[in-house]
Amino acid sequence: MLALAVSVQVALAAPGDVVLEKAAVVRRAKEAMHAKVIITIANAKPSDALDEAFAVAFGVFEKIDTTMNEWRPDSPLSRINAGAGVEAVEAPAELCAVLKLALDGAKRTNGLFDPTWAALRDVWRFTGSVEQALPAPDVREAACQRVSYKDVELRPKPKGGGACTVKLKQKGMALGLGGFVKGWGIDQASAELKKRGYRDFFVQVGGDLYVSGKNGERGWKVAIREPRGAADATFARGELSDTAFSTSGDYEKFFMNEGKRYHHLIDLRTCLPATASVSATVMAKTAADAEVLTKAVFVLGGEEGLKLAKGFGAAAVIVAPDGKVFASEELKSKLDLGQPAGF
């Protein structure tokens, strides 16, 4: 998953994939889940009600950070991972809801997206070094055997108010919800803003984004980053609203080995970096769906990736390793698609 750059008067955060252009807006940002959460509301005047709306929306991510952050040893998700292969662990209702959605996404993509990818976390490391050694094949293959959404046992607790127990059947298994739960959080925060009467806004966390309503009198102007160009260079532009985006690319976390790029987007069928794409952007109804699809579409690439997105009622733009652009038909009429540079 990639960081997005959003500009409303000025550029924000890290280099990225979607650019939103100028409007009279109220913008606020906070750190959560090792990422910058940015919420911008257009066509709204400062007020106590606006302050409350921001507070509630940011509160969604603060709660996620406490409950679903696998890097926090005291979080319920960490306790589930610690019990892998040993015992079922009780989980709160919101975590159970997220896990159910993530497992459903894994099932629908036949494991191309899989929240148990985290068994590979210590196998593939991206330290920022230009050159790194490859993991030993036997180590990679052993860890790959522990990636299996089918080995996650989730059981609702009777009269538990949505709580459940979760068991990872194999020792060494681990759940990693980082990207997916950010998308889910965007959906929840967006629902809270709409509940309070706000219709023109965007919510962004890293590479996930939801745009709602209008930016001034028009839809939000978005652009897709060049996968081989400068961080602020784009090859596709359009004007959209009421949709979610997520982009995955091989240029954010990678290292080189003997002239070949090894990146963090792993094909879980082989537990090697996927090779069918260099960039995949998905437009979906929800940010959670976009998160599931952007990784799965990246892995499949080309026409197969477009077909998978369509099966979810979503659309995609995919850049192949030779620079060829594949785009869903509905996006061809909404985006001005150019040819990415650098191929």
What's the quick description here?
Helices cover 28% and strands 27% of the residues. It contains eight helices and 20 strands.
Structural class assignment: alpha+beta
Largest sheet: 8 strands, antiparallel
- The name CATH uses for the topology of one domain is T-fold
CATH architecture of one domain: Orthogonal Bundle
Q: Strand fraction band?
A: 25-35%
CATH class of one domain: Mainly Alpha
Gap between N and C termini = 22 Å
Task: Provide mean pLDDT, rounded.
Answer: 90
Assigned CATH superfamily of one domain: ApbE-like superfamily
DSSP E strands, number: 20
Q: Give Rg in angstroms.
A: 20 Å
Shape: globular
Percent of residues in helices: 25-40%
Count of alpha/pi helices? 8
Describe the structure.
It is a single chain. The protein is of the alpha+beta class and 343 residues long. It has a domain at 76-178: Orthogonal Bundle (T-fold). 28% of the residues lie in helices and 27% in strands. It contains 8 helices and 20 strands. The strands form 6 sheets. It has an 8-stranded antiparallel sheet. A 3-stranded antiparallel sheet has the order 5-7-6. A 3-stranded antiparallel sheet has the order 10-11-20, with no helix packed on it. It is globular. The two termini are 22 Å apart.
